[in-house]
Amino acid sequence: MRLPTLLTAVSGLCAVALSGCAGTLIVEPAPSAAAPDCATVMLRLPDRIDDLAQRKTSAQATTAWGDPAGAVLRCGMEPPAPTTKPCVSVSGVDWISLEQSEESWKFVSFGRDPAVEVLVDPRKASGANVLNAVSPAVAALHQQDKCQSAEDIGEDGTPVRG
Q1: Alpha-carbon distance 35 to 33, whole Å?
Q2: What pTM, to 2 d.p., does this model score?
Q3: Which CA distances in Å does 17 have to 3, 8, 11, 22?
Q4: Does 99 map to a domain?
Q5: Domain enclosing residue 131, as ranges
């Protein structure tokens, strides 16, 4: 009777040990990951984006969806300076598109401090769906500025506020 009990206990411990480590994605924390506002964002993020389940990550103020990851989010980034790079507004949050390749799209929120970075693998997730899913949480960060279009900029390069 002791052998089956021992085997059950050992197999149970192995399952716990394996499940405790499996699925944790190693992510480098953002420079200001400890910003209190990031905690608010993290608590509001969705558990799923399309068919991608949220998973554990190794750093504060980070999360990911999918295994392998289709999207990774880091809160606590340095806010980007004004840029001519493409900007899109999703649910009241402006996102600058910093990089696009076949394997990775990189977006960073604009006009909010701290900024939020989102990396999307377009082979696994839709960039539009990811931004739609996370923007309500990022909207909790105070908006300090917004993206400007060409019509919003005067001939001297200064913003025209109406």
Answers
A1: 6
A2: 0.80
A3: 21, 14, 10, 9
A4: yes
A5: 25-147
Query: Which residue bears the tokens 């716990």?
Result: 16
Judge whether 83 lies within some domain: yes
Burial of 4 (0-12, 13-18, 19+ CB in 10 A): exposed
- The total of structural domains in the chain comes to 1
* Angle, CA 65 vertex, CA 82 and CA 46 arms, to 5°: 80
Residue with tokens 């960039």: 127
Going by C-alpha positions, the residue among 43, 108, 52 that lies closest to residue 81 is: 108
Q: Is residue 72 part of a domain?
A: yes
What are the tens digits of pLDDT across the range 87-145?
A: 999 999 999 999 899 999 999 999 999 999 999 999 999 999 999 999 999 999 999 99
